[in-house]
C-alpha cells in the first residue's frame, strides 16, 4: 500500500467537496488502487494546520464552525511558512481562486510545493494562466506531476482524452461547450425564458455565480481553451490573443429564432490547427442537428476532437459543480500515484 500525504489549500466549495470524497472513496483508493491518501494539512485564508499523525481529526473534514479551535490550527499560519521539507512528500491540492493576471496567491503555493518535492493538483486556473511554462518546467525538471483537470472543464475529461486516448493522432480541431452556466442559459432561453429570467433561475439553482461576468462574457471558456491549447499543442498562446465573444448581448427571442430554424445556439471554445498555425476563439455558433454538441443541454458540457486517424471523437457530460470539480482532482491524484 502506497501512503500518500495530502495537503489541501482552500476549504471553500471545491475544497469541502474534495474532503468529502477523500473520506467517501477511501476504501476504493486502498482496495482498487493500493493507495492510501491521508490528509496531513489544511490551509485557508485565515490560517492553517499541519500535523504529523496519519489520522486527522474529524473536525478538519466537515464544514468548519469549530475549525479555528481545532488542535494544530494556527491563526495566520500560511502555507508559505509550512516546514514542508521536514515531511515526507505527497500531493498539494489547490482549491483557491487566484488572479489571472498575477496568478497569486496560488502561484507562490505551487512554486513552494514543487520546490519542496510535492506533486500538485490544482483547481485554481490563475497560476496556470499567468505562469504556465515556468510551472510545467519546474514540475518536469523535478520529476513531479502538475495536474489541473479541474481547470479544463473538470468532470468532463478533456486533457486526458487528448493526451492519452488520442495519443498518436493529429488533433486538427477542438470544439467544446466548456462552460455549464452559459449552456444552461442558452438552453433555457431556447425554451422560452429571457436572458434575465434564465440568469435568475441559474443563480437560484446555484449554477451561475452571483457575478456571472466571467462565464457570460466568454472569459471562462477562453481560459479553458488557452490551457487546452498550451497542454495539447505546447503553444505559447496568451489570453489576449483569443478572439472572444460573450452571450450577454443575445436575447431570448434571437435564441428561439435560431431554434425555429432547427439549430441550437451554443457558446463554443474553438481551437483549430491550420498547417502550423493554431487559432483560438470563443464564439456563439448555431449548431445543426448533425453536430454532436447540438444535443448537449442545460449545465452539461461536451468536447469534440477532429483527428486525422480516429475521425471525430466526442465526449459529453460531467457534472458542473464543486463535487464534479473535486472528483476531477481525485482522478488526477489517482493518475499521479497509479501506473496501470
Ligand atoms: N466551484 C466550482 O464548481 C469549480 C469548478 C472548477 C474549478 N473551480 C475553481 O476552484 C477554485 C475554488 O473554487 P471554490 O468555488 O471552492 O471557491 P471558494 O468557495 O471561494 O473557496 C476558496 C477558498 O480559498 C481560500 N483562500 C482564499 N485566499 C486564500 C489564501 N491567500 N490562502 C489560502 N487560502 C485562501 C478561501 O479561504 P476562506 O475559507 O478562509 O475564505 C476558501 O477556502 C477556484 O479557483 C475555482 O475557479 C471551481
Layout of secondary structure:
Blueprint: E1 2-9, H1 13-24, H2 26-33, E2 35-44, E3 47-50, E4 74-75, E5 91-94, H3 106-115, E6 119-122, H4 126-141, E7 146-147, H5 159-165, E8 171-177, H6 180-190, H7 195-204, H8 213-216, H9 219-233, E9 243-244, H10 252-260, E10 264-274, E11 277-287, E12 302-307, E13 312-316, H11 322-337
Helix pairs in contact: 1-11, 3-4, 6-7
Bound molecules: NADP nicotinamide-adenine-dinucleotide phosphate (NAP).
NADP nicotinamide-adenine-dinucleotide phosphate (NAP) is lined by residues 9-15, 43-46, 95-97, 105, 123-125, 150, 154, 321-322, 325.
Name a few traits of the molecule.
7-stranded mixed β-sheet; Rossmann fold; 2 domains; binds NADP nicotinamide-adenine-dinucleotide phosphate; Dihydrodipicolinate Reductase, domain 2; globular; alpha/beta; about 350 residues
How would you describe this structure to a colleague?
- With 340 residues, the chain is an alpha/beta fold.
- It folds into 2 domains: 2-155 and 322-337, NAD(P)-binding Rossmann-like Domain (Rossmann fold, 3-Layer(aba) Sandwich), CATH 3.40.50.720; 159-316, Dihydrodipicolinate Reductase, domain 2 (2-Layer Sandwich).
- It is built from 11 helices and 13 strands.
- Helix 4 (126-141) links the parallel strand 6 (119-122) and strand 7 (146-147).
- Helix 3 packs parallel to helix 4.
- The longest helix has 16 residues, at 126-141.
- The two termini are 15 Å apart.
- Residues 9-15, 43-46, 95-97, 105, 123-125, 150, 154, 321-322, 325 line the site of NADP nicotinamide-adenine-dinucleotide phosphate (NAP).
- NADP nicotinamide-adenine-dinucleotide phosphate binds next to helix 1, strand 2 and helix 11.
